């Protein structure tokens, strides 16, 4: 574990293009409708996701064309850099901190890559010091918002040390015209793009809107085929098991008990679980596991409706809503991602 760490600022970022769920369904029908015999039965998935709209890195016509690695990673770098600046600048302003105060930057993104990594590409433009410590993270997927924030909190534990955490995902860029699998079609109905950033500092609780005091991770055995990327010549291909909600109903409760024990936290004292909204079926499974009434995860459903599943940043969009509504004395962030893994952060409300 680590000493309590102040969460000083939170900022969000969204790309400029908005795609309604109706437009997404029409686009997918245009691409797959005449090619897949069972596609008409699949169309109802778009109506059952609870999603009204999502933001995308590119306009709709881009997704109707064929793209290889070069196109996809070029689009990723351009959009990811803009989102990094947008979210990080908002988080620093919220914290009342200058870029030159940042001692370390942690970046989590699993939907693209750049070398040098994004924070190095943007260091001068952002105004970071030349001696800044950098930690880019890849492969955490939907869990990256919680797992990356936990890593940032550990690095911020020494008093006076300031860490910037940034996560951005551009899931739409992984859309595959050549993949008629159920997983690809479900991903088309679910995923959007976005970014979030947090500023953390050790020993600054008087300025915090929340104080992180615990973190844990549980890796489920024999579960690697539940979620992830398949990588081939065309780009990323989604791996997403339809058995995920059932898996959570069966296996998450004992894992949650172990995670709370890692955080030295008592479940009955957690006033609000702030969860990554993977989809409506996942939210229903989480409410069952957490012993909540149906509909209790209201901020999660609102974020899902407005933005879709943005992967790693999504849980921080939920935290932003929970913060504006008023955090309880004790809260916990929960996200699930490739591995298959569950990640938890516990926090208490700060004085700010």
TrEMBL record:
Pfam families documented for this protein: Chal_sti_synt_C, Chal_sti_synt_N
SUPFAM superfamilies associated with the record: Thiolase-like
Entry keyword set: Acyltransferase, Transferase
PANTHER family named in the record: 1,3,6,8-TETRAHYDROXYNAPHTHALENE SYNTHASE (PTHR11877:SF99), HYDROXYMETHYLGLUTARYL-COA SYNTHASE (PTHR11877)
UniProt key word Acyltransferase: yes
Family statement: Belongs to the thiolase-like superfamily. Chalcone/stilbene synthases family.
Sequence ranges assigned to domain Chalcone/stilbene synthase N-terminal in this UniProt record: 7-200
Gene3D superfamilies: 3.40.47.10
Annotated ranges, domain Chalcone/stilbene synthase C-terminal: 215-329
Organism domain of life: Bacteria
Name of this protein: Type III polyketide synthase
Cross-referenced InterPro entries: Chalcone/stilbene_synt_C, Chalcone/stilbene_synt_N, Polyketide_synthase_type-III, Thiolase-like
